């Protein structure tokens, strides 16, 4: 078995004095599986004496970097020879890794047993000729590892990194910065890469998209991920606020499964993403806003309920790599509403919104015998749902005049960060009805506050979120989901 990859926690401190006073970084010194990346270019008080103090605490588990200005370094007017001088002091002190840009001359540099990382950074884009950049770096003298960090414009720009990782993973440290490139940080070990970078828990990080060391270590089990691990994830935009990685990684860990769940920010063309990134080891995906309908062409088959709804929130790969689409929102929403409303047969349920979630909720409650009313901003979408599910279309402003037993909000209004928004004003809420908001972040949305002020019973979206996630877990793994653990993980985060 290959050595588990390391987590290099980058210092962000403006001085060595500040670093030495940081209890979090001191606690990571010489901790198994971790390195401290000393960013010498950040330290205003850098001199031989202060560097010796830092190395006294952190060596040998150090990755020493003195970045040049052209590749993201912080210091003006520093010569290459001065940077090399300080890196040599680190090598002399026995640090494990030294990072030197491929462009920096290093004649006479003596590694003294340290591993050399030759690096290249592009903070604007992903260059077209990544493979030739990699090849020319690999030909340099004494290079142990090749680090290439690029800034993708979309997730599709990260695809060329996968090709290089599959060919040269054990010699490569490949990073796509920003939210679109998160997978390159989390899955490094799947391709045998020696390490990835992380930030301190309260640190801004030294590159966009850096996760904290604790997220990598505890949430994603970064050091355990091997070539045989299965990959699950959520595709959507935005996806950074999604709590799905929290519940699914907690569940996968609890069941000791060799699998990890990642957020993938996919702005456009979700079906193309699914096909192009399947080689990552994808075995299941959650699909969220706004892709639940657009992803349909990626499915080889559809579960009958998903077919009726015309939207999927779950993709499942079978053993033959055939992809089946499901919709776990419908049953999850119906269960959540039923817990407050009781049996739905003959009851009037108004669904606000006619997007992916709106369609799922409408079919879910209809299948339990409810009469469905649809309110949607765009009338054509409401009409389409009316035809498909058999419903009545109504306006947001006329709801309160009708006999409505329950309202389910499936618009994205009120979702963090737009927490002041609500699809209805207080007077538009029919008195005495049950109000269920599928938005779960925040737990208590503006709509639910208004409904409570109106004397209505409320249902939070978090219960539906847990139920739809539990169904996904069971479809993917064939195992019963640890529902209570998933609930605790979400509630702790939303507190
Ligand atoms: P979607 O397909 O993009 O649909 C968004 C819906 O919101 C559409 O009906 C849209 O109306 C409406 N909308 C957006 N902005 C609006 C505005 N300013 N005024 C009025 N209506 C507006 O998204 P989705 O996948 O259905 O998800 C929608 C929400 O459901 C999300 O907030 C998500 O958190 C929630 N959800 C929760 C769960 C859960 O487990 N709790 C599961 C799924 C979804 P138009 O048709 O006019 O654009």
Describe this structure in words.
The two termini are 41 Å apart. With 495 residues, the protein is of the alpha/beta class. It is elongated and about 85 Å long. The chain has helices at residues 16-20, 23-28, 48-58, 80-92, 130-138, 159-168, 182-186, 213-219, 244-254, 270-277, 304-309, 329-341, 356-366, 379-390, 446-453, 461-477, 483-494; strands at 6-10, 34-39, 62-65, 97-101, 115-122, 145-150, 172-176, 195-198, 230-236, 259-265, 282-287, 301-302, 314-317, 323-326, 348-352, 371-375, 392-393, 406-409, 434-437, 457-459. It contains 17 helices and 20 strands. Strand 5 (115-122), helix 5 and strand 6 (145-150) form a beta-alpha-beta unit. The strands form three sheets. Strands 7-6-5-4-3-2-1-8 form an eight-stranded parallel sheet. The chain has a six-stranded mixed sheet with strand order 10-9-11-13-14-12, sandwiched between helices. It is 33% helix and 19% strand. The protein binds NADP nicotinamide-adenine-dinucleotide phosphate (NAP). NADP nicotinamide-adenine-dinucleotide phosphate is lined by residues 289-290, 292, 329, 353-358, 376-378, 381, 410-413, 415, 438-440, 461, 464-465, 468.
């Amino acid at each position: 078995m290959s050595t588990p990859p390391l987590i290099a926690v980058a210092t962000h401190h403006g001085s060595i004095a500040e670093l030495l006073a940081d209890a979090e970084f001191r606690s990571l010194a010489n901790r198994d599986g971790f390195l401290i990346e000393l960013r010498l270019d950040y330290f205003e008080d850098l001199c031989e004496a202060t560097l010796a103090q830092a190395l006294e605490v952190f060596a040998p588990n150090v990755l020493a970097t003195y970045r040049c200005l052209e590749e993201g370094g912080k210091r003006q007017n520093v010569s290459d020879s001065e940077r090399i001088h300080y890196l040599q002091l680190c090598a002399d002190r026995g640090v494990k890794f030294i990072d030197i840009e491929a462009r920096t001359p290093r004649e006479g540099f003596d590694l003294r047993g340290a591993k050399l990382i030759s690096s290249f950074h592009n903070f604007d884009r992903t260059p077209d000729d990544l493979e030739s950049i990699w090849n020319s770096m690999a030909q340099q003298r004494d290079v142990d590892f090749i680090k290439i960090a690029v800034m993708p414009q979309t997730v599709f720009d990260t695809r060329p990194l996968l090709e290089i990782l599959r060919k040269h993973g054990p010699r490569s440290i490949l990073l796509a910065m920003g939210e679109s490139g998160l997978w390159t940080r989390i899955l490094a070990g799947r391709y045998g890469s020696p390490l990835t970078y992380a930030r301190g828990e309260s640190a801004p990080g030294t590159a966009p998209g850096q996760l904290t060391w604790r997220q990598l270590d505890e949430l994603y089990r970064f050091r355990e991920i091997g070539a045989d691990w299965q990959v699950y994830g959520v595709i959507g935009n935005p996806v950074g606020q999604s709590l799905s990685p929290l519940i699914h990684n907690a569940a996968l860990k609890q069941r000791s499964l060799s699998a990890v769940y990642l957020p993938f920010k996919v702005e456009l063309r979700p079906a193309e993403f699914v096909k192009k990134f399947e080689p990552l080891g994808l075995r299941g995906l959650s699909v969220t806003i706004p892709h639940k309908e657009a992803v349909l062409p990626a499915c080889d088959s559809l579960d009958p309920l998903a077919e009726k709804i015309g939207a999927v929130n779950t993709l499942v790969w079978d053993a033959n790599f055939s992809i089946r689409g499901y919709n776990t929102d419908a049953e999850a929403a119906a269960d959540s509403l039923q817990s407050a409303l009781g049996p739905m047969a003959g009851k009037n349920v108004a669904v606000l919104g006619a997007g992916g979630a709106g369609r799922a909720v409408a079919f879910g409650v209809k299948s339990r015998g409810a009469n469905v009313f649809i309110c949607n901003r765009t009338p054509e979408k409401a009409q389409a749902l009316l035809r498909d599910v058999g419903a009545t279309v109504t306006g947001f402003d006329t709801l309160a005049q009708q006999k409505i037993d329950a309202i389910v909000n499936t618009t994205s209004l009120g979702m963090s960060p737009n927490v002041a928004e609500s699809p209805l004003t207080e007077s538009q809420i029919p008195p005495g009805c049950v109000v269920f908001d599928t938005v779960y972040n925040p737990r208590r949305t503006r709509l639910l506050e208004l409904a409570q002020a109106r004397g209505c019973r409320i249902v939070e979206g978090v219960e539906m979120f847990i139920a739809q996630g539990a169904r996904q877990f069971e479809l993917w793994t064939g195992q019963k989901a640890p529902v209570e653990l998933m609930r605790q993980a979400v509630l702790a985060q939303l507190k």
